[in-house]
Design goal:
Blueprint (H helix, E strand, L loop, with lengths): L1 E5 L5 H11 L5 E5 L12 E4 L8 H11 L2 E6 L5 H6 L1 H5 L4 E8 L10 E8 L15 H5 L15 H13 L19 H5 L7 E3 L5 E3 L2 H7 L12 H10 L3 H16 L27
Parallel strand pairs: 1-2, 1-4, 2-3
Antiparallel strand pairs: 4-6, 5-6, 7-8
Helix pairs in contact: 1-10
């Protein structure tokens, strides 16, 4: 039961989850337009393919699907979804079912509202995972970290406080965009982690001062374990976190596919009665639910 991951990029940890779930039952195959994609090291087989904007990309994708009798195709880049959507009938003509849905990582033990469209193409229709009946708050994920600081902490200056206040007023924010520990965080992005912007992620200390969240705090909000190491400058590390697929979200996707392919019904998910939280199209307006 071979699985194909397209536009695999840096998502080596995601491929590792699926390899662990599959065991000896099949191969994890990755394709990407870059021969140096870090995920290639985690895949059982890896192939460099044309860019998704290249007219030859779809033909190469179909060639790999046929050659390796791919059981399921899992795209990892949002930009590929319009291409697959336009060619849905052609892919289905190969004997695949295309299933897709808008999922929020907050429903899969990630302490963050993070909506993503998930698409799975498979020989037998694979339903997307049901919600986990457990929400993790930012406070549960961070523990004591929000109350700690040192000489390297990046505190807001008076001018930054004024800038943020003007930004929130102009954006008509109902609540300040500080991190609230009693609820999941808003979406982490490269911009609001690495950039000194009006909507940057920050925590308010008990004395009223505010500081930007650290790399480790951002990693926890993205559900990375503390042992996971990021490389490069601080900005590079923030970008790696902001671009990542949340590991807990990836884990539940992998377990759901594993259970389907192996017929394992022991680890079925509990359906939550909570409505899916939705992000606003305009992220400058943050409202509590």
């Amino acid at each position: 039961m071979n699985l194909l991951f397209t536009c695999s990029g840096r998502r080596h940890y995601l491929l590792n989850y699926f390899k662990e779930a599959l065991g000896e039952r099949g191969l994890v195959i990755a394709i990407d337009s870059q021969s140096t994609a870090p995920s290639f090291a985690a895949a059982d087989l890896a192939f460099q393919v044309p860019s998704i904007y290249d007219p030859e990309y779809l033909d190469k994708l179909k060639e790999i699907i046929k050659s390796y009798q791919i059981k399921a195709v899992i795209p990892l880049n949002d930009l590929e979804l319009p291409l697959l959507s336009r060619n849905k009938e052609e892919l289905e003509s190969l004997g695949y079912y295309i299933n897709y849905a808008l999922l929020n990582a907050v429903n899969y033990e990630v302490p963050q509202n993070r909506e993503r469209v998930i698409v799975i193409g498979s020989k037998q229709k694979i339903n997307l995972p049901r919600k986990i009946n457990r929400k993790v708050t930012a406070g549960q994920a961070l523990g004591e970290l929000p109350f700690q600081f040192n000489e390297d902490s990046k505190f807001f200056t008076e001018s930054m406080d004024r800038y943020v206040a003007n930004y929130e007023k102009a954006s008509k924010c109902i609540n300040p965009r500080d991190l609230y520990l009693d609820r999941p965080a808003r979406t982490l992005t490269c911009r609001n982690l690495a950039g000194a912007t009006g909507d940057m992620h920050r925590v308010r200390l008990k004395d009223g001062r505010r500081r930007r969240i650290t790399v480790r705090e951002a990693a926890r909000l993205q559900s990375f374990p503390d042992w996971f190491e990021f490389s490069g400058t601080e900005t590079h590390q923030y970008n790696q976190i902001g671009n990542a697929v949340a590991p807990n979200f990836a884990y539940h996707l992998a377990m759901n596919i594993k259970n389907h392919l192996t017929g394992d019904v022991e680890n079925q998910y509990v359906i939550s009665e909570n409505d899916q939280l939705k992000l606003f199209e305009n992220e400058t307006v943050y409202q509590s639910r």
